[in-house]
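Recap quiz, item 2
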Amino acid sequence: MDQSVSADHPGRLAARRPSAGWGKRLAPYLLSLPAGVWLLLLFIVPLATLLIQSLETCSPVTGACTMTWSWGELPHQVSLYHQQFTTSLIFAAIATVLDLIISFPIAYWIAFYGGQRKNFFLIMLLVPFFVSFIIRTIVWEFILSENGVVLRFLRHAHLISANFHILGTSTAVIAGLAYNYLPFTALPLYVAIERIDRRVLDAAYDLYANRRSAFARVILPLTIPGIFAAFLLTFIPAFGDYVNQEILGGTSNTMIGTVVQDSYLVNFNYPAGASLSVVLLAISLLGIWLYARLLGSHTIEDYL
Amino acid sequence: MSAITHSDEIVSERRKRSVRRRRRLGRLALPTYSWLVIAYLVFPIAIMIFYSFNRVIGGLQQVSFSWNGFTDQWYRQWSDVPGLTSAFWLSIRLALIATVIATVLGTALAIALVRYRTAKFHGRVAFEQVLFLNIAAPEIVMGASLLGLFVTLNIARGFLTLVLAHVMFSIAYVTVTVRARLSGFDRSLEEAAYDLGAKPLATFRLVTLPLILPGVLAGALMSFALSIDDFVTSNFVSGSNPPFPVWVYGATRVGIPPQVFVFGTAIFMVGIAFAVMSIVLSRRGVRKN
């Protein structure tokens, strides 16, 4: 009697647990189905549409587009807008490098000395995100304007000449990009530095490393994947950005994002826009592929 | 023996010195620099809040950056610009709906990804890659491709397309956030619930959900913030009733009504309140543990 109960007991338990049967086997698929369908229909399918649209060719005379199954439009668009591509690449690269330089020390400081107030400082890094991206950029437009706070002060102090201006120049665009994307750099850097094992650093000091060599030979090498991740997470959105250029820049430094947007929303030339988008995507994927190839041990997601 | 202790002393002495040296750097140069960076980040926000109290002289009600004196007029007349107010409420509605859908879908996906290894979940690797691509792809490409799809399928642009798009770009962030919190989850608690006779749904409601709730909330907050601030994708897929950021962007060409800064200040305050709340809650959680 007693024995039969104990023998029966685990069996009944196992039956209660939904471990066997269809439910369990289907569970991962059922759980992932809604998100999967959503991403398939609204992320993968659109990207496929984009690729297909870039295979169309538009007649320069009538403007009508037909499917030609060739990349005819792509080199055409690239040769038309290579200037804007170059501008975007240069602006995004300079802004990202500036962000890396600006945010490395503060990320280092928060990771090593933040102590109890780490969360507070991380929120301070995120503070720009609490104000709309567009509003932030508009405020910079006013700050950098002819009568804005900065220029008026500098002119008053005779540090700049009367007709000096920033707005409408490449400097203003790069400054805007650097400001708006700084958190994208600072947070991955923080994660990377935070991850360093302090004992490794102590070992370096025990082995008579001075501060500089400990930094150059321990901290820096250990944060290289994080630096690269931060670079990509900043560079990719900055590369496709056009808001900063449209609000802070002039007419001579148009970025590729403006061209894409105008192809779609102003000229309704979808194959042109699609071709440019494909190039944009390809450049971004190239960066990610390089990352995976060179530093495959961590995924970029680890730094989000 | 004594030699060993001696060298140990030297080492520890040296370590102390290095720690002290590190502290000195940490005490002066770095904090000063860091606070300067924080000031730089906060500066435009302070300007925005400051100028939301600026009087406007002249006929046109537009923000100007000469200081004309203090007024709370724009706070009293916050809803006087019809297009702006409706754009703001549209953004709030959009963000709430998109957040609810994205949080449910993203959480379910996160659970599937954490629970089931590749052998039991074919397509897991594909999911990981799609999520990653979704986060890494330039937003302008996603917006443009969605517009291409909607035009091809003849779907009119409006609130529906905005919801579809916002959920699409939020899911991956929710999943990544929830998954990070789920990885430390103790499954034996669920098994205990089953052993005590709880059905799967009851187990989820009474055991799993309360445990992963902080992660789910963090994901939801992230999704809300992404949605309410989104410009690039929204600009492609919105119709005649644009959300708040798209409306403001359109206004930059004709002049920005001062109420924009009032809304900006309000959103900022709410965001800060949520952030402070999450810090307090996580502190309390730590203390409990």
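The domain at 74-303 of chain A is CATH 1.10.3720.10 (MetI-like fold).
Residues 1-15 of chain A have pLDDT under 50 and may be disordered.
End of item.
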